[in-house]
Amino acid sequence: MEGREVWLYVTYGFLALFWLPAYILIARRGFIDKTYGMPIVAMLGNWPWEWIFGLNLASPCPIVWDTCPERPLQLANFGSMFLDGFIVYTIVRFGREQFSNPFIRKYFYPILIFGLISSFAIQYTFITEVGFPNIHNLTVNGQVPLFLPGDSGGSYSAYILTFVMGILFIYMLTQRNSLEGQSFIIAMAMLLGNVAAFVFIAILNELTPLLNVLFVLTLFVNIVYAAMVFRKSQELGINPLKRW
């Protein structure tokens, strides 16, 4: 196995190592604190993305990775989809009571269902239609297209989601003004998981200006969120490293 292949496996392993426990801890804190630990809008974007790749509705393998282990990557995404289901349960179980708006309280569950269906439809068509820039000048059907059809559209949508998610976590923390459903460990797991994802794409040599911008912005908001959670923990007299 070549050195590049080894590092691809290693970095994807770190990606899973940080994100899968993050989902477990988010769900755990939700059950303990009787609330949800992932912003609802973030869930509406994140869970359908995992349906698409966890159920193999689109291949998780970039064209530039010739020996990509499609099944293990699919299983990792399926694991994320499964664990996110517990987070969704906390939203269904405790989310409605978090809103005072009578319209949202009355139609909370139909809104969730519509949001999930809409998110899935938009992301599936985006992932399957939006091509990745053919930065390696690969030949497809005897031609060298500017974009690789259906290749790695999920990278764009994933980084857009992680950036938006980072902002939504900050908003949730400031709105609640508490650590309900949250912890510094969770914040660091998400941050390190996003860094691992960026390194993974960098090793694939698939970085584009858009992905670079999205990573820098995502890293910034992740660091801000982690710092805010750390500070809030200290204000409340909680050891940030002991709250899981």
Strand content: under 5%
The low-pLDDT segments are: none
Number of strands: 2
Radius of gyration: 19 Å
- The topology string of helices and strands comes to HHHHHEEHHH
Question: Could you characterize what this model shows?
Answer:
The structure is a single chain. This protein has 244 residues and is mainly α. The protein has one domain (3-235). 70% of the residues lie in helices and 2% in strands. The radius of gyration is 19 Å and the shape is globular.
Could you list some keywords that capture this structure?
mainly alpha, 244 residues, 2 strands, two-stranded antiparallel ribbon
Describe the SSE topology.
Layout: H1 3-33, H2 40-54, H3 70-94, H4 102-106, H5 108-129, E1 132-133, E2 147-148, H6 153-176, H7 184-204, H8 209-235
Describe the structure concisely:
The chain has 244 residues and is mainly α. The chain has helices spanning 3-33, 40-54, 70-94, 102-106, 108-129, 153-176, 184-204, 209-235, and strands at residues 132-133, 147-148.
